Amino acid sequence: MTVPYLMEDQREAGRLVAKVDADAWVHTYLDPVLPQTPGARVLDVGAGPGHIAEAVLRARSAAQVVAFDGNPERLASGGPDGAGPLRRSGDARALPFDDGSFDVVYSRLMLQYIAERDVAIAEMARVTRPGGTVVLFDLDGQLIWHDPLGPELSALLEPVTTALTAAGFDPHTGRRLYGLAHRTGLTDLDVRVDPYHLIAGRIDPVQRSQWELKLDIARPLLARALGSPQAAQEAVDAFLAHLDSEETLTYSVAFTVTGRRV
Ligand SMILES: C[S@@+](CC[C@H](N)C(=O)[O-])C[C@H]1O[C@@H](n2cnc3c(N)ncnc32)[C@H](O)[C@@H]1O
């Protein structure tokens, strides 16, 4: 069974892999908390095709790494079970693992899509062993922070963000991670914030094609939010024109909250 996901599309696995240097991400955000101990157990929640979990295995070849996602086909597209990380599917809001099964549990860019993110974080904490580490990584401002934000783009963004919110998406998930982790009872919280999107002036061709794909995958939602496929096309054109302008800045930030399970 596939857990509903706003960006569901055959092309989503390829999009996710293309937009991150997984080894660099693991080096920056996970390496400090990944145990050196052989057999250390690590869980990636909302793993997509498992590209980040594979990088964890490259960093700690003796670890037992599980890539977990709501879409079994996307997971399988990353490779067969047994080669690389173990691949398991299900719902992050009811993880199919025993209490205290993992030394490190992390989630990258999933929580923003789940309205019940408090439940998912509580589940992540539950399956982490006492003394183990939970790492939450998510964005703040994606899609909505631009300068200048002209009236045309503003008029388009309003109904789209309303529709996204109704579908459970929160563009300010990043800033909420600290409070969510605190309320879950995680301790020794460490908060870090880094630039994520940063497009000053004309967007480069690689990033532009990534945005084109993202907007194309989001096209059904845009059409529903704006009333017609034609209105969705006009919104895509206006957004890409904004990114193509020498005069505009678009940005978002990524929050990383690391905590210890008591
Ligand atoms: C934006 S992708 C992030 C993938 C990967 N973590 C990365 O950083 O590239 C979000 C992933 O979360 C998964 N997802 C969304 N809601 C989920 C849920 N309730 N349970 C499990 N996975 C879920 C989706 O299937 C999707 O693969």
From TrEMBL:
One family name in Pfam for this protein: Methyltransf_11
Molecular-function GO terms, alphabetical:
S-adenosylmethionine-dependent methyltransferase activity
Domain Methyltransferase type residues, every copy? 43-136
Keywords, comma-separated and alphabetical: Methyltransferase, Transferase
Tell whether tRNA processing is among the UniProt keywords.
Answer: no
Could you give a single Gene Ontology term from the biological process aspect? methylation
Report whether rRNA-binding shows up as a keyword of the record.
no
Q: What is this protein called?
A: Methyltransferase domain-containing protein
Q: Which organism is it from?
A: Streptomyces hainanensis
Q: What does UniProt list as this organism's lineage?
A: Bacteria, Bacillati, Actinomycetota, Actinomycetes, Kitasatosporales
